[in-house]
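SAMPLE LOG
Freezer: B-3
Tube label: C17
Construct: single chain, 196 aa
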Amino acid sequence: MYKAATEAELIARSKQRDGEAFAELIQRTRPYALRAARSILRDSEEVQDQLQAAYLSAWRQIGGFREDAKFSTWITTIVVNQSLMRLRKLRRTPLTASFEFEQDGEYRSFDVADGRPLPEAEMARQELIGIVRAEMQKVPPIFRRVLTLVDLHSTPVAEAASQLGISVAAAKSRLSRARNAIRARLEARNLAGVSL
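STRUCTURE (predicted):
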């Protein structure tokens, strides 16, 4: 019914909650969405599940779609976000291995969880620590000293103030300025809100 319709016509009909028009849009952009999901999730079942979740999300949000954008770009962005959320959830799930052994004529089994972070996550964490340390070196020494004591060595602010020969209020002020300086530098690198 909508094979000859333009993308703009299909979008307009979809915004009026026409499911067939939306299905045609999905059909036309499926190769892009599938490629995007496969590049993030290697498991074909996961890919199909996240595509369905992304399509449902797109259907719910179609009223907010801006006509100055391409639908293929919009739907691919939703698929990428959906797939990345799923990947994060999968990576937070600890890996387990099951073992079965015989003891006193009975078979017993137990699971061993691998609590170590994934190598990619640990590598990213180490890289981020290096960035933060490099940014700390750019903070003026008067502020960096209190930051190092409090944030790196877990020294209480009052004790850090005593070691530096300054008041607690001065230590708090310098610490705040140092943290704000580093936060600004990380924001400039699009690393705001990261956790180590």
